[in-house]
Amino acid sequence: MRGTIVGLMFKTPPRSSLDEDLRARLDALESHSIRRQLRPISSGIGPRIVVDGRSILQFCSNDYLGITSHPAVTRAAEMALSRYGTGAGSARLVVGTSSPHCELEEALAQLKQTEAALALSSGYHANTGVLPALAGSEDRIFSDALN
After folding, report:
1. Torsions phi, psi for 119 (to 5 deg)
2. What region does 85 belong to: left with phi over 0, alpha with psi -120 to 50, or beta?
C-alpha cells in the first residue's frame, strides 16, 4: 500500500500498521523527490561548503556572509572558550548568566533604542519563547508563507 501526498498532508490507506503507514509516507516523499536526508559537510559552514567531495555555494545557512570564519570572530571565540568554557551548564535562571551574554543584550538594546533585549540561540527558540509569552489560549496568530 502506498501513500499519496495531498498538499502537505499525507493520505494513507485505512487500517495500516504503523510500519506500513510510515513506509507509505516515506515512499511518497521519495517518489516526489522531497524526502529530506542528512548530507555530511566535510568543511566549515560558510558561503562555500564541501559536500560529497565537491565545493559548492550554499545559500541556506545563516552564515551566508562567512562571518563565522572571519579571523576576528574566530579569535574572539577562542578567547571566550578559554575563559568561559563550552557552555553554561544549565539554564540562565538556574546557574546564572554569563557577562558576555548580558553585554550582548545591553548592546542590542542600545542599538534598537529599547529598554531591554533578549538574545536567543535561534529563530526557533525565539518563536517558542516569545509566542507563548505574547499570546494566550484565546488568541489567534496568523502568518503567511512569506513570513
Report:
1. -95, 125
2. left
**pTM exceeds 0.90:** no
Q: Is 112 helix (H, G, I), strand (E, B) or coil?
A: coil
- Classify residue 133 as left (phi > 0), alpha (psi -120 to 50) or beta: alpha
DSSP 55: E
Beta-sheet pairing, 48-51 with 54-57 = antiparallel
* pLDDT over 70 (residue 138): yes
Q: Residue 29 — φ and ψ, nearest 5°?
A: -60, -45
Contact at 8 Å (CB) between 100 and 84? yes
Whether the Cβ atoms of residue 12 and residue 1 lie closer than 8 Å to each other: yes
Report the C-alpha gap between 97 and 119 in whole angstroms. Answer: 12
- Strand segments (E) across 35-114: 48-51, 54-57
Predicted confidence (pLDDT) per residue in 58-94, tens digit: 888 888 788 888 999 999 999 999 999 988 888 888 9
Check: CB of residue 48 under 8 Å from CB of residue 59: no
